[in-house]
Design a protein that fits this description.
This protein is an alpha+beta fold. It has helices spanning 2-12, 38-56, 183-219, 291-303, 330-335, 424-449, 487-491; strands at 32-37, 59-61, 64-70, 74-89, 92-97, 102-122, 129-154, 157-168, 171-176, 224-226, 231-234, 242-243, 247-252, 256-258, 285-290, 308-311, 340-347, 352-356, 359-374, 377-397, 400-417, 451-452, 459-469, 472-481. Helix content is 24%, strand content 45%. Strands 2, 3, 4, 5, 6, 7, 8 and 9 form an eight-stranded antiparallel sheet that branches. Strands 16, 17, 18, 19, 20, 21 and 22 form a seven-stranded antiparallel sheet that branches. The longest helix is centred in the middle third of the chain and has 37 residues, at 183-219. It starts with a helix and ends with a helix. The protein binds 2-acetamido-2-deoxy-beta-D-glucopyranose (8 copies). Residues 36-261 form the Lipid-binding serum glycoprotein N-terminal domain.
């Protein structure tokens, strides 16, 4: 009865609406949303229960002493000591998010204890005290353990609190090694309630401590995840987690920020109301990235001036000599015969990423300056503006989202020239080759490195799927827990 009441209390406490809606500042927009589905919550719950049990046992309980009146013997002083819970088994458990928190209930749990018993009494029949000692094993059955966890955003990190916690023991059976025949009933009468209460208290206390550790673990999660030497991903939580009856959603900033103190102009991004949608509802986790995430990366690397380079080695090396251009730009060859050249490629604005239904569009505006190298002098001779249209794709490897780019189309125009007019239709095939053989491979080496998705250390994506929809990329995946440091070490020691 009491067990059912416990579950009832925990569950109802979830649905008392809280009126402490925090005021969100308008610029705290979320560009990455994460949703943990019921499958994911079950996975986490099972992991937590396993970890919690292995961190709890062996658990020592305080000794219990009592003087009991036993028929024919009189007052007997009994003592249980070295009471140790050495095994806990959970038959069934569930996790349920509600309006205000998340309930986790383990029912039908059993736990096994070992203990030493001792008794003594004196009787007027005999001039000596009678005492005996031995060991006993105790089985606690029908145990019910439940807790309700509150989750909120506190200054950009997750705050976990224990709103409710209870443990209820239904049945106890004791097996004595040795002892007199009256002892068994005497022990049951005297200690059943006390052993039950001691188990309930100890487990409740331990769970409280465990939640505190889990909370400090969450509080200590970094607000930025390094991507490379120059950039990191802002993983600050921007709203309270949203709890539905079968999932928990988290909103994080998700924009790229500079790691060095380079002044990057503050860009304003607008998120199209984050939402996570996984076609396969059996996946544990969905992560939606707004296209602003990619555009913030693009802006960051552009502003930090990493997007320009001097090309002095290409597969068609003859093109880096004016002789190679003899028939394409005859006046170049005439003015600088047989001089080496290099190409100075730079972007004129941050590449623009647009995510469409089943496609990713990337537009790159670049400038290609043709330099002639003559006796230690770099002489810019012409500049061509390029609008490159690419089609992107992304893939997951480990917890990293990497990308690649394919050329769809490009257009070019002459920006300036010191060697007269150029016949662009002759140059076009050369530029096409350069884009294919130099620019794209270079870009793809960097894009392939990708960036880490915001996933707590120790968890790895498994069977991930990627869905491109209007302005969003959603990764739907299962996770597995890699028994490493991280969670294990911080939480459960
Ligand atoms: C990260 O995002 C939060 C929320 O939008 C913002 O307050 C914070 O300034 C950002 N951090 C950096 C380093 O840009
Ligand atoms: C207490 O119990 C544990 C486990 O049963 C046992 O290993 C240990 O020796 C006992 N200690 C005492 C003082 O009896
Ligand atoms: C623990 O107790 C259960 C019954 O409650 C029993 O089936 C199991 O064998 C016990 N385990 C040990 C190691 O004694
Ligand atoms: C009780 O168990 C402990 C540890 O297993 C052992 O050292 C001790 O001898 C046992 N006591 C009796 C009276 O059997
Ligand atoms: C949140 O941050 C502000 C300013 O950094 C600080 O004054 C406040 O105490 C913090 N709140 C909590 C609950 O940590
Ligand atoms: C990071 O910045 C340095 C210059 O500060 C540059 O040399 C390096 O290539 C950059 N790394 C990446 C991955 O962009
Ligand atoms: C969750 O809520 C939706 C409506 O918001 C309802 O249709 C659905 O049946 C609920 N699921 C459970 C498991 O309670
Ligand atoms: C490359 O071109 C840019 C302008 O587009 C210029 O600022 C830069 O100095 C040039 N680099 C070299 C090495 O010529």
């Amino acid at each position: 009865m009491a067990a059912t009441a416990l579950v009832f209390l925990l569950i109802t406490s979830l649905f008392i609406p809280s009126y402490t809606q925090d005021i969100q500042s308008p610029d705290q927009e979320a560009f990455i949303s994460i949703v943990i589905s019921q499958q994911g919550l079950d996975f986490l719950k099972n992991l937590l229960i396993t970890k919690a049990i292995s961190s709890i046992i062996p658990l020592n309980l305080p000794r219990i002493e009592k003087t009991v009146k036993i028929p024919f013997l009189g007052n007997v002083h009994m003592r249980l000591s070295n009471i140790t819970i050495y095994e806990i088994d959970v038959l069934s458990s569930f996790v349920k998010p509600g309006d205000t928190g998340v309930a986790i209930v383990a029912s039908g749990a059993t736990c096994n204890l070992s203990m030493s018993w001792y008794y003594q009494y004196s009787t007027w029949l005999l001039p000596v005290e009678i005492a005996d000692r031995g060991n006993a094993s105790v089985q606690v059955e029908g145990m019910q353990v439940g807790l309700t966890l509150g989750l909120e955003n506190q200054n950009g990190t997750l705050k976990l609190s224990l709103m409710d916690c209870g443990c209820y023991v239904k049945d106890i059976s004791i097996k004595l090694d040795g002892g007199a025949s009256w002892l068994y009933q005497g022990m049951i009468d005297a200690f059943e309630g006390q052993i039950g209460a001691a188990v309930e208290n100890a487990i409740t206390k331990k769970l409280g401590e465990g939640i505190l550790k889990l909370d400090s673990f969450l509080q200590a999660l970094p607000k930025e995840v390094p991507v490379d030497d120059n950039a990191s991903l802002n993983v600050t939580f921007v709203k309270d987690p949203s709890l539905s009856n079968s999932s928990i959603g988290f909103d994080i900033s998700g924009l790229f920020t500079s790691r060095k103190k380079i002044l990057v102009p503050a860009n304003k991004y607008q998120s199209s109301q984050p939402s996570v949608f996984c076609k396969d509802s059996s996946k544990m986790l969905g992560i939606s990235l707004d296209e602003a995430v990619f555009n913030s990366a693009s802006a960051l690397y552009y502003d930090a001036k990493f997007m320009q380079w001097i090309v002095d080695k290409i597969p068609d090396q003859y093109l880096l000599n004016t002789a190679g251009w003899r028939f394409i730009i005859p006046q170049l060859y005439r003015k600088y015969p047989n001089d080496d050249m290099n190409l100075n490629l730079s972007l004129s604005s941050p590449p623009i990423v647009k995510i469409l239904e089943n496609d990713i569009d990337a537009t790159v505006y670049a400038e290609l300056i043709i330099d002639v190298l003559e006796a230690d002098l770099v002489i810019p001779v012409a500049c061509i503006s390029l609008d490159i249209y690419g089609s992107g794709s992304v893939k997951i490897s480990g917890n990293t989202l990497g990308g690649s780019l394919k050329l769809k189309d490009f257009s070019m125009s002459l920006k300036w020239s010191h060697i007269g007019n150029l016949r662009l239709y002759l140059i076009q095939p050369v530029i096409w080759t350069l884009i294919q053989t130099v620019f794209l491979p270079y870009a793809n080496v960097h894009l392939a490195q990708g960036f880490p998705l915001p996933i707590v250390h120790g968890f790895t994506l498994k069977n991930a799927e990627i869905i491109c929809s209007r302005s969003k990329i959603t990764v739907c995946s299962d996770v597995e827990f890699t028994e490493s440091q991280g969670l294990n070490q911080i939480m459960f020691n």
